[in-house]
Amino acid sequence: MNLAEKLGFAENTKLLIIHADDAGLSHSENIATIRSLEEGVVNSYSMMVPCPWFYEMAIYAKDHPEFDYGVHLTLTCEWENYKFGPVLPISEVPSLVDQHGYFYKKRDELRANATAEDVKKELSAQIDKAIKFGLKPTHLDSHMYSVGASPECFQIYRELGAKYALPIMIGEQLMEMVGLDAKDNIYQEDLLIEKAHYGIWEYFESGSLKDYYKQVFENMVKGLNIILIHPAFDDLEMKGITFNHPNFGSKWRQIDFESFTSKDMEAKIRKNNIQLITWNDIRKIHGNG
Q: Please, what is the Cα angle at 34 between 17 and 26, to 5 degrees?
């Protein structure tokens, strides 16, 4: 019995999660995420526990348990002038930070420097901080999919999913994106994202990102699909955060917000016979995957 059948749908159903990453990154990100949930078709999000605006989003999550949310496990900080680091004291996880005490910008730097012990301690601390705040996450995923920086990191990701009885986001596309060998790191019993849909630089650079989003529902496959977006506003805050980083920058995130709060999105979902589900639906019937 496949996932669709376990959820009570036909075997060939196109299942979809519309997921907003990076809640907690900034006030702009938080407000756009909230509006995407309340006014748009986004039905899941995840929070970056180490970021300064985590508190605001965590309060919202507690006040609105009807929305599906996870922990966006964070080991990297890609921004040029906006920095954050571990939730643990630096002295406890020294291999995870640069000379200034912040997360590395790139997965390659993380891979070259991080110890498995420090990765496990910090990611556990992020989940524990969310739970101690009173949150009830539905799943685990990862900022920049940094859990795929190495097979050792990915194994820790698996172990944390099992420890906290939470499904984890796994998919061949995501592994390929970070250079992790899918053949060696996917197990037969894994619950897989059959297809991940997300904007890429070429769409944004050519001015066709909105067009891509308009037709994304026509490219769903049988099984579990996920659309990954990063809603925020092209305002002063996000311009400052994403300075000199147009890839997933403030303009890109404004397009994400506008696209998935568009009034015609629900009609596109119905037209293509897509069934929206959440990570919580998966958690209830599949455990930690």
A: 105
